[in-house]
Amino acid sequence: MPQGKLKVKTKLPAKSKPKRKTAKGPAATKRTNRPIAPKKQKHEAAQKLKKTITKNVNAAIEDDLRAKALDGKKSLTSKKKASPAANRKSKRK
Fold it and tell me: What pTM does this model have?
């Protein structure tokens, strides 16, 4: 049993004009003459640049620390590590 009044649907007056629906254009515009450049290539180029900058900065800092630590003495360790391919060749002999 419903509580309160039941809703009655209202009717428009007979004199009122019905609304006309306007024709809408296509939802997506055509971009044939304005292609969108891919963002991934730009992002990858920026990341590559950042990586090379940090690599160079770290190498420069390492050289400075090496120079300060040695103070003109001869280093017994090499700056670059030997490649794994060189290690395999020496083991075969």
Answer: 0.41
